[in-house]
Amino acid sequence: MANYKPSLGVLNSEKDVHRTDRHIPLFAGEDTPHPDPDSPFAETGTNVHLEQMKDMLLTYNEYNTELGYVQGMSDLLSPIYAVMQDDAIAFWGFVGFMNRMERNFLRDQSGMRQQLLTLDQLLQLMDPKLYLHLQKAESTNFFFFFRMLLVWFKREFEWVDCLRLWEALWTDHLSSNFHIFVALAILEKHRDVIMAHLHHFDEVLKYVNELSNTIDLIPTLSRAEALFHRFEKKVEAIDKKYNFPQAPVRQRTTRPTPQANTTTSPARDSSATATGASPSGGTGAKPSSTPNTKPDSEATSVQIITPDLRKLLSREVEVMDAKEVRQHTLLGAK
After folding, report:
1. Euclidean distance between CA atoms 15 and 11, whole angstroms
2. At what angle do helices 159-170 and 217-243 cross, to 10 degrees?
3. Which residues have a Cβ under 8 Å from the Cβ of 273 and sit 6 or more positions away?
4. Which residue intervals of 42-109 are DSSP H helices?
5. Could you say which residues of the chain have pLDDT below 50?
6. What pLDDT, on a 0 to 100 scale, did the predictor assign at position 259?
7. What is the C-alpha separation between 33 and 46, in angstroms, rounded?
8. Kind and range of the H or E run holding 311
9. Which of 57, 76, 132, 146 could form a disulfide with 13 if both were Cys (CB 3.0 to 4.6 A apart)?
10. Residue 32: beta bridge partners?
């Protein structure tokens, strides 16, 4: 053990565990000496539940070699362990949870960027005025929602409410991405304050961060559900308006009319050619093939439902395979 050097994932997991949910009685005590005297945290007090958490995260670091441990995973494990209090059951429950949450911890952060982009598109569709205000405040990167989406609002709700929220999200009752509507519900709840008083990114960031542990769960879920149904109806209306199949056009078949056999004198032909007139007495200019009409005003404001927005209507949970995770890990390492 003297030559053993713990990996960065092991060190980070141990450091994170000692900072995770220490206000919960289960994790609060420090009545056990550190089991590894060579650890950089040997002088830090611990307890049996913290050590169980460390062991599970270390096991996951070896189990998922493509991803390993990433900061924030301890926040996802602690509620599962606190409820189960059985390391084997809690570990496999955590593995199942991470199957859908891996995208949040990719090294290149592509999974998080995609969710923030989806929230961007959703707000544009549902509340254009609020979106324009955030755009003026240089806040449409939605970075102030990064932490919320990363660990599913773990630090925004009280402990018991967080457990209830996660159980609601795990049902995939309306959408496997219902957490995006929870984020939208939080924005809509504070819409008036944001539009009236917050005009810069740092103001928006500070305000949203200070919402931690102040958000009521039931009204937020009710608002999120109402927003989902509004979104669903809006998608149906847009699809019906712009993608309704057109009736087939029936064309009448006509016989070609015989042209009159007229003759013109060479002199008349030459004069017509010289003046640029056609033999029939026209000016020789071809009539325009397109009518001179103004573009339809509705065509310039067509609302498009992007593929990312359509995924919000699906209840299917997307799970990444090991090859995808490996590719994103390599991209993040560059």
Report:
1. 6
2. 30
3. none
4. 48-63, 73-84, 87-101
5. 1-2, 4-5, 260-300
6. 53
7. 6
8. helix 307-311
9. 57
10. 46
What is the pLDDT at residue 262?
Answer: 44
Model confidence, pTM: 0.78
Distance in angstroms (rounded) separating the CA atoms of residues 183 and 203: 18
How far apart CA 33 and CA 44 sit, in angstroms, is 8
Q: Are the C-beta atoms of residues 225 and 174 closer than 8 Å to each other?
A: yes
Angle at 126 between CA 137 and CA 122, to 5 degrees: 75
Q: What number of other Cβ atoms are within 10 A of residue 118's Cβ?
A: 21
Domain boundaries, the chain: 8-104, 110-243
Pairwise CA distance, residues 218 & 224, whole Å: 10
Read off the amino acid at residue 114.
Q
Residue 271 in tokens: 């004069």
pLDDT at 197: 96
Fold of 110-243: Cyclin A; domain 1 (1.10.472)
pLDDT value of position 144: 93
The DSSP call for residue 296 is P
Residue 41 contacts by C-beta under 8 Å, 6 or more apart in sequence? 14, 15, 18, 34
Distance CA 106, CA 196 (A): 36
Structure tokens given for 221: 């879920």
In this structure, whether the domain defined by 8-104 belongs to CATH 1.10.8 is answered with: yes
